[in-house]
């Protein structure tokens, strides 16, 4: 760790402000094509755990659906400090591991599937429409975790990942490309988060 990294780490640790318990990272399939891309992801997991994160959610946006099986195989084999759950578009099983990875499963699709399941329950008579609330929706999401901090690398552009869950999240955009993402970039995101006053829509 360089001098500047140690300085940032000290600022983060000595701050009275809370650190994010849940961090989401948004990258693209192209980000994972570069040399060392998966090693950077492994380090990211280590950094997150080191600085108090309980849950890490990674969204890999995909343009070429044929790349999904390869991405799934590679991501399921990365080294991580905690259990990993990888989900692809046709897997509707709830991701409940400390590290959750979505490959090409956008928030619009995830939300639509949750609504369909609720509708089926109403049709079957097992659910009263009046009982449908935020909790009912969240129980049918693949990623039922609300991120405190969402980090988007490479460009200041939103994706449709976790559109329901991230409504009150703090968004952090960095123009640093994933292949160049370092500890100092993660620490900068944490410092930015600590300096914000969260309002949760109020």
Mind explaining what this structure looks like?
The protein has 202 residues and is of the alpha/beta class. The chain has a domain of 140 residues: Undecaprenyl pyrophosphate synthetase (3-Layer(aba) Sandwich). Helix content is 34%, strand content 16%. The chain contains six helices and six strands. Strands 3-4-2-1-5-6 form a six-stranded parallel β-sheet, with helices on one face. β1, α2 and β2 form a beta-alpha-beta unit. It is globular, with a radius of gyration of 18 Å. The N and C termini lie far apart (39 Å). The mean pLDDT is 87. GO terms for molecular function: ditrans,polycis-polyprenyl diphosphate synthase [(2E,6E)-farnesyl diphosphate specific] activity. This is Undecaprenyl pyrophosphate synthetase. InterPro entries: UPP_synth-like, UPP_synth-like_sf. Keywords: Transferase.
Give me some keywords for this one.
202 residues; alpha/beta; Undecaprenyl pyrophosphate synthetase; six-stranded parallel beta sheet; globular
Element-by-element helix/strand order: HEHEHEEHHEEH
CATH superfamily of the domain at 19-104 and 145-198: Decaprenyl diphosphate synthase-like
Radius of gyration: 18 Å
If you consult CATH, what is the topology of the domain at 19-104 and 145-198? Answer: Undecaprenyl pyrophosphate synthetase
How many E-type strands? 6
Cα end-to-end separation: 39 Å
Low-confidence stretches: none
How are the secondary structure elements laid out?
Layout: H1 3-14, E1 22-28, H2 37-50, E2 55-61, H3 68-76, E3 84-87, E4 99-103, H4 107-123, H5 134-138, E5 149-153, E6 170-174, H6 183-194
Parallel strand pairs: 1-2, 1-5, 2-4, 3-4, 5-6
Helix pairs in contact: 1-6
Pfam family, one: Prenyltransf
InterPro entries: UPP_synth-like, UPP_synth-like_sf
Protein name: Undecaprenyl pyrophosphate synthetase
